[in-house]
Amino acid sequence: MDQAPEAPKSLHDTILGDIESKILSGEWPPGHQVPSELELSDSYGCSRMTVNKVMTQLAQAGLILRRRRVGSVVLPQKTQLSVLEIHDVRDDVEAMGGSYRHEILARAYRPVTGAEALRHAVPEAARVLDVLCLHRSDGRPFSLEERLIFLDCVPEAEAEPFTDAPPGIWLLDHVPWSAAENEISAVAADADEAARLEIAQGAPCLAISRRTWKQGEPVTAVRFLYPGQLHRLTARFTPSTA
Questions:
Q1: pLDDT surpasses 60 at 237
Q2: 236 pLDDT exceeds 80?
Q3: Beta-carbon neighbour count of residue 203 at 10 Å?
Q4: Which residues have CB under 8 Å from 22's CB, separation 6+?
């Protein structure tokens, strides 16, 4: 029996597929100005409403950034996967069109606790720099960073104020790492976290915990807390050919 012919693609799917292909292939690199809705509607001979729905879908997928009166630009695809990598929060903020700055809310030098010594496999006499950092986008809280830096591995961190760069970026620039581990979970903000992130206590948040090592010696352990309504994880992939 002959198979029924496939239904023709809708204009929406055609436009979406064309733009996705240009972005994912690199033909349109990060920062590329996407044609306006009017230009696309003229090019494809369709209504602006159809194009608007496509652009909304692309923005929701993290492929483009839409800016009123300026137009849409292609986003770096790194930001979709950066939570799974050693990343720069500043890059994430700026890729989303925000103005970045950070604040060191607290810092202290102390010995590790018994639980920390056990978890990170360090002597109980090991000293850490305990840093609390708030990352902002356009002045609003973007992420709360709680970080331990192991001073046996990174003694120079003791004198670093982290005024020019936040702790994570300073570490990336100064300390080579050989292994990393990420844990991702959904949590509810406690009272202190909620106050710092300017959200309601108990609001859902995305927590990303990371540890890095240098030749088996722990460098840092950090936990990033993101307001859940403002962040999501997105990854695009193709089926394995193996």
A1: no
A2: no
A3: 15
A4: 28
Residues of the chain with CATH 3.40.1410.10: 81-229
Whether 222 and 209 have beta carbons less than 8 Å apart is answered as: yes
* Model confidence pTM above 0.90: no
Residues 140, 231: Cα–Cα separation, whole Å: 14
Architecture of domain 11-75: Orthogonal Bundle (1.10)
- Is 3.40.190.10 the CATH classification of the domain at 81-229? no
Q: 142: helix, coil or strand?
A: strand
Alpha carbon separation from 167 to 46, 89, 134, 171, 199 (Å, rounded): 50, 11, 11, 6, 24
Length of the chain: 242
Question: Per-residue pLDDT averaged across 74-102, rounded?
Answer: 71
Angle at 176 between CA 170 and CA 179, to 5 degrees: 115
Per-residue pLDDT tens digits for 138-167? 999 999 999 999 999 999 999 999 999 999
Parts of the chain belonging to CATH 1.10.10.10: 11-75
Residue 5 scores a pLDDT above 60 = no
Distance between CA 174 and CA 180 in Å, rounded?
16
